[in-house]
């Protein structure tokens, strides 16, 4: 036990003497969490710039322009009578849409000719385009209904009857789980989980690869020739420090007012399994690739597309089967799947049984492979040492 404590002190010194490792392990989750939290703090997209081309310049089109100006999701940057060079302006000014009210619009409305309002969307940013489209459609549909009802009233129909005649049926949308459409609730948890997987991968990838590079591994083998002992030695500092990092990450939820239930036992189980699975994969790469740079580069290949492939923001049904099959064995994929069931749907351990099973499988397979490979390298190093002593 005394030997283990002494070696553990050395491990902590080696970890804290590595500036890159410290930046990855502490600065990345704290810094990125703050940055991304404030990026999405507004919660939803507001004030998307649009241009209105009013070719009619009538009281009716003035009313439509006023309605657009009152919409919080849209910002009327310019109202003009002619289009001008909008195709040249759009990339520079980043207009989300251009709404064109044609000549004779009011006259056609009054004469029931059903004039057409043209909306040109900037599809370079699909999120902005969809948000702008929804807001524009909401404004125009509301006005359309209002004009139709007013027309019926002018024909002598009672206001209640006019409204009933236009509204054949009503639609009532009941938004569940994220009723405000809050982007902090939607995006930040997934991003934080992907960041945590990545920093665990990269930090633990240096555990053995650094020892192979600077020769410290041979010193460890002289003291202990057990792969299990060395794995425990390398894992212990991270198992001590990671709860602190996870605590900091968890505090972003109340700080940014994320309405997700994460402080419960099923979430603790899921978090522990993500941590262990990521550690085992990172340490396996660290043992298999005795070069710090190559080990971290290969782990980056896994972690970089993990968030996209996880199905958290893009439905897995739209991803080819062979890609989703591979993605199932990236720890964060299972974590995010379970996270949504627990944090938003109120699930329990039974609801994430599949995720628990796969994360446990990843952990066990990576651990066994690491033990076998590390023991082989320990035996190989010990054999070299004995040959040197005998020589």
UniProtKB/TrEMBL annotation:
Keywords: Cell membrane, Membrane, Transmembrane, Transmembrane helix, Transport
InterPro entries, per the entry: ABC-2_transporter_component, ABC2_TM, ABC2_TM_bact-type
Chief subcellular location: membrane
Top-level taxonomy: Bacteria, Pseudomonadati, Bacteroidota, Flavobacteriia, Flavobacteriales
Chain ranges passing through the membrane: 20-40, 186-208, 228-253, 265-289, 356-376
Localisation per UniProt entry: Cell membrane
Protein name, as recorded: ABC transporter permease
Domain ABC transmembrane type-2 as annotated: residue spans: 153-377
Family stated for the protein in its record: Belongs to the ABC-2 integral membrane protein family.
Topology term for the membrane: Multi-pass membrane protein
């Amino acid at each position: 036990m005394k030997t283990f404590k002494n070696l553990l002190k050395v491990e902590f010194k080696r970890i804290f003497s590595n500036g890159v490792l410290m930046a990855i392990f502490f600065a990345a989750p704290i810094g990125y969490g703050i940055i991304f939290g404030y990026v999405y703090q507004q919660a939803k997209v507001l004030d998307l710039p649009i241009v209105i081309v009013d070719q009619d310049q009538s009281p009716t089109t003035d009313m439509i322009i006023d309605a657009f100006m009152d919409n919080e999701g849209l910002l009327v940057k310019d109202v003009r009578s002619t289009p001008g060079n909008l195709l040249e302006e759009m990339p520079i000014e980043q207009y989300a849409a251009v709404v064109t009210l044609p000549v004779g619009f009011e006259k056609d409305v009054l004469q029931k000719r059903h004039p057409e309002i043209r909306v040109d969307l900037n599809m370079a940013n699909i999120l902005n385009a969809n948000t702008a489209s929804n807001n524009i459609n909401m404004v125009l549909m509301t006005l359309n209904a209002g004009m139709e009802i007013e027309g019926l009233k002018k024909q002598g129909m009672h206001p209640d009857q006019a409204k009933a005649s236009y509204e054949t049926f009503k639609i009532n949308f009941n938004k569940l789980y994220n009723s405000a459409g809050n982007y902090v609730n939607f995006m930040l948890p997934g991003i934080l989980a992907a960041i945590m997987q990545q920093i665990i991968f990269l930090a633990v990838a240096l555990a053995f690869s650094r020892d192979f590079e600077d020769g410290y591994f041979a010193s460890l083998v002289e003291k202990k020739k057990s792969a299990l002992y060395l794995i425990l030695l390398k894992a212990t500092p991270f198992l001590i420090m990671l709860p602190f990092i996870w605590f900091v990450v968890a505090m972003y939820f109340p700080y940014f007012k994320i309405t997700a239930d994460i402080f419960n036992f099923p979430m603790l189980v899921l978090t522990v399994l993500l941590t262990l699975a990521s550690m085992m994969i990172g340490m396996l790469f660290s043992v298999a690739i005795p070069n710090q740079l190559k080990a971290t580069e290969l782990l980056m290949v896994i972690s970089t597309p993990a968030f996209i492939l996880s199905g958290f923001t893009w439905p897995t049904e739209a991803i080819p089967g062979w890609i989703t099959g591979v993605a199932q064995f990236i720890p964060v994929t299972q974590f995010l799947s379970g996270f949504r069931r627990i944090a938003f749907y109120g699930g329990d351990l039974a609801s994430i049984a599949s995720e628990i099973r796969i994360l446990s499988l990843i952990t066990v397979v990576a651990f066994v492979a690491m033990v076998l490979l590390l023991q082989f390298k320990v035996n190989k190093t010990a054999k070299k040492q004995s040959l040197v002593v005998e020589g």
